[in-house]
Amino acid sequence: MSLALFLAGIATFALLYSTQALLPLVSTDYGSTEATASWTVSAATGALALCVLPLSALSERFGRRATMTGSLAVAVTIGLLVPFAPSIGALIALRAVQGAALAGLPASAMAYLAEEVRAKALVAAVGLFVAGNSIGGMSGRIVSGWIAQACGWRVAIGVIGVIAVVCAVLFRVLLPAPRHASAAPGARDATDTRALVRAVRDHLANPLLRRLYAIGALFMTVFGASYTVIGYRLTDAPYSLPQGLVGSIFLVYLVGTVSSATVGRLVGRLGRRGALYLAAGTTASGLLLSLAGPLVLVLLGLVLITAGFFAGHTAASSAVSHTATHGRAQASALYQSGYYLGSSIGSTLGAIAFRAAGWGGTVALGLLALCGVIVVTLYGTRAAVRATGATRAANAGTNAAGTRSPSTAHS
């Protein structure tokens, strides 16, 4: 199960962000601006954000494994067509369809894990899936960078598509049939529009889930902005790095693999909110450090950004799966919608900020989003303190009532 979902994570992120490291070459080939080229990333993540909730409902009807398999099958097929896009508009359209197809995988995977894995092991299991995401994002960018330098970006995208096909086939072969899935009648009921609306309404009415959705979106805004723009910064003066080396910069994703896989222990020591504070602080430190001129400090800044982001994302996403007591697919889908909407917004606004004010503008956008993470987490901390105080007061009142006369206690 772990290996299958690890491979699914690799295929998902390799496809979803296949053009991100190649944006300077895409801009040159089509004669487009940074902001226009960034839509090859934003269209995919935005379509995923819009489609993840409806496709999560299909996973209730047809099963998690079938939905994930179908999503990957369509996405890898589109991936083989993307290199032949005749214009930037056609490329953006194909990427949007690809993102919509991939929407069936993230929420279904989270719900599958929540149903099949013991609660104590859930954070670690989600961490392995997220680690696959980081490996896919890293390897896809590195491979495409070197191939693009030698053969052009179209060949590079085609190779990523073939790798994703292999991962998709292995995923389907390795993934075991679910053992604890909902019964068929319940699954059919979940596809009813009213049942779906009720599930979504219940999750959005939960203050903790709302905060987790916002945190996921804000973290991804930072990450999407940073990695969409970094290629332009490193290929421009004074660095003027070749495309192969720019793609290799994404080796820092290995840090994300480690941080996401170890978040379970971090949450055990600091609690969920403590882990989120640490993740936000680490990401902010990375943004500030990346403003320095020397290339080694820029890279160290990226390391901290990556470690902080993956830690925060894993802590928030696993908390969603643990918090939802029903409609887990919808709960995870709402998180994924916010998460990938943040990526879409971050990619577009990050490119606009870079064109207007350089890397400093992109950093300012990221710091603003992290301020939002801190504010939301602080509000959650205060709400938890108030809830604890109210519980203690209620318990004290109950104990005092036990010493009174029956009539008084009843009153």
Feature tags:
411 residues; 18 helices; mainly alpha; Growth Hormone, Chain: A
Give structural notes:
The protein is mainly alpha-helical and 411 residues long. It has one domain (2-177, 198-393): MFS general substrate transporter like domains (Growth Hormone, Chain: A). It is 85% helix and 0% strand. The protein has 18 helices and no strands. The protein has helices spanning 2-16, 23-30, 34-62, 64-81, 88-102, 106-116, 119-151, 153-174, 184-191, 193-205, 207-235, 243-248, 253-261, 263-289, 295-323, 328-357, 359-401, 406-410. Helix 4 (64-81) packs antiparallel against helix 6 (106-116). The longest helix is centred in the last third of the chain and has 43 residues, at 359-401. The model is unreliable at 183-191 and 403-411 (pLDDT under 50).
